[in-house]
């Protein structure tokens, strides 16, 4: 089965984290997620995340710390999702492939209809923050 490495950003600002809502044109439309995308050949995970956040949100991210990795099995492939903490960014957020964003307290993020693959990432992030 094919394995695809994907990076996800848990972007922090003023004690909140950013969730982005998938637009109607893509897979899992309307669900909330941590923005990110596929790691391309020759890229490190932080490099891929910086590129993806530039493409999706128009920002230049400061990728700080690996949070967790989680395998999410689909019928024809395994998505290996890697979450990274992003402590800051430059430029203004521009929605290019999401319909909206929200800043929420980490412990309230689970109240949003999260993409299933992102649920364990949120749990690991909250557990790491609690230490």
TrEMBL record:
Domain of life: Bacteria
Co-factor requirement: Mg(2+)
Keywords linked to the UniProt accession: DNA damage, DNA repair, Hydrolase, Magnesium, Metal-binding
Domain Nudix hydrolase, residue spans: 1-127
Segment forming the signal sequence: none
Name of one Pfam family that matches: NUDIX_4
UniProt-listed SUPFAM superfamilies: Nudix (SSF55811)
Membership in a protein family: Belongs to the Nudix hydrolase family.
Protein name: Pyrimidine (Deoxy)nucleoside triphosphate pyrophosphohydrolase
């Amino acid at each position: 089965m094919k394995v695809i490495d994907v990076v996800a950003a848990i972007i922090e600002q003023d004690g909140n984290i950013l969730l982005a809502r998938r637009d109607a044109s893509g897979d899992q439309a309307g669900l909330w997620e941590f923005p990110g995308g596929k790691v391309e050949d020759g890229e490190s995970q932080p490099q891929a995340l910086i590129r993806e956040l530039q493409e999706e949100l128009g920002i230049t991210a400061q990728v700080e710390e690996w949070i967790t990795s989680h395998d999410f099995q689909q019928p024809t492939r395994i998505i290996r999702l890697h979450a990274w903490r992003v402590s800051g960014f430059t430029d203004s957020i521009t929605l290019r492939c999401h319909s909206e964003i929200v800043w929420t307290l980490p412990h309230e993020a689970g109240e949003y209809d999260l993409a299933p693959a992102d649920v364990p990432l949120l749990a690991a992030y909250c557990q790491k923050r609690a230490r």
